[in-house]
């Protein structure tokens, strides 16, 4: 039990360290992700007003493996961002490493936003 608490504390410290230098605005919102073992959630946040501009989840996507679903979520979220008028973002990976599902989502989002 002690090891689980220590790991959670380490994860929270990583998240705080990453989040300390990231701030989203209306013209450049923060794209934040949450990863569970099964799904991935992402949302575009305007930190000035504290509102979510667009969001999505891999629960909506039915085909493919986890990484392909993450890439599809990136495309879906980029389309929603275009409708809102967003041209650039600040990526908040949270406590997660930039690889695998997180990397697939970010790269597809940026590719489809242009």
TrEMBL record:
Which InterPro entries does the entry mention? Ribosomal_L18, Ribosomal_uL18_bac-type, Ribosomal_uL18_bac/plant/anim
Which GO cellular component terms are attached? cytosolic large ribosomal subunit
Gene3D superfamilies tied to this protein = 3.30.420.100
- Keywords for this protein: Ribonucleoprotein, Ribosomal protein, RNA-binding, rRNA-binding
> Quick check: keyword RNA-binding in the entry?
yes
Where are the bilayer-spanning segments? none
Q: Which domain of life is it from?
A: Bacteria
Give the Pfam families listed for this entry.
Ribosomal_L18p (PF00861)
Tell me, what is an example of a GO biological process annotation in this record? Answer: translation
A molecular function (GO) held by this record is: structural constituent of ribosome
**PANTHER family on file:** 39S RIBOSOMAL PROTEIN L18, MITOCHONDRIAL, LARGE RIBOSOMAL SUBUNIT PROTEIN UL18M
What HAMAP family is this protein classified in? Ribosomal_uL18_B (MF_01337_B)
Question: What family name appears in the similarity comment?
Answer: Belongs to the universal ribosomal protein uL18 family.
What's this chain's function?
A: This is one of the proteins that bind and probably mediate the attachment of the 5S RNA into the large ribosomal subunit, where it forms part of the central protuberance.
Q: How does it assemble?
A: Part of the 50S ribosomal subunit; part of the 5S rRNA/L5/L18/L25 subcomplex. Contacts the 5S and 23S rRNAs.
User: What is this protein's name?
Assistant: Large ribosomal subunit protein uL18
Q: Which organism is it from?
A: Candidatus Harrisonbacteria bacterium RIFCSPLOWO2_02_FULL_41_13b
The taxonomy runs: Bacteria, Candidatus Harrisoniibacteriota
